[in-house]
Amino acid sequence: MALQLDDDRTQNPMLDAIDTAVGATGSLIVYSGAQPANCSSANPSGELVDITLPSPAFAGASGGAMAKSGTWSASATGTGTAASFRIYNSTGTQDGTTCIMQGSCGIGSGELQFDNTSISSGQTVTVSTFTLTAGNDS
């Protein structure tokens, strides 16, 4: 039988800890470069957009899931195809020391999905939905 975690006592607190780690000055950066091996690796190439996240960045976890909170939107500063993203806990130091999570971008695939992955400088980029889900539901 597979390992199972209780929503209220383990899954939700784990997700809420992610929001705490993002903190009050978090940011989401979308890149055209591929997702690195881990958060400690150098940033991907091709920064497309830097979105300052609201505080809190996520709504409180419930049922083993946690959705984004507020509006995640900014004007693109680069042009390219969204391939990866990172969420940082500091808008001042966006590197492997402050990377909280990273993932891939796509249309119908990837952890951060867009209706169109082609981004042009000056374009408004908005993340309409983003939900983290804890595994091993009881």
Q: What this model shows, in words?
A:
The chain is mainly beta and 138 residues long. The protein has one domain. 12% of the residues lie in helices and 32% in strands. It contains 1 helix and 11 strands; from the N terminus they run H-E-E-E-E-E-E-E-E-E-E-E. Strands 2-1-6-7-8 form a 5-stranded mixed β-sheet. Strands 3-11 form a two-stranded antiparallel ribbon. The model has no long low-confidence stretch (mean pLDDT 89).
Helix content: 10-25%
Series of H and E elements: HEEEEEEEEEEE
Shape: globular
Main sheet: which strands, in order across?
2-1-6-7-8
Rg, alpha carbons: 15 Å
Please count the beta strands (DSSP E, at least 2 residues each): 11
Search tags:
mainly beta; five-stranded mixed β-sheet; 11 strands; globular
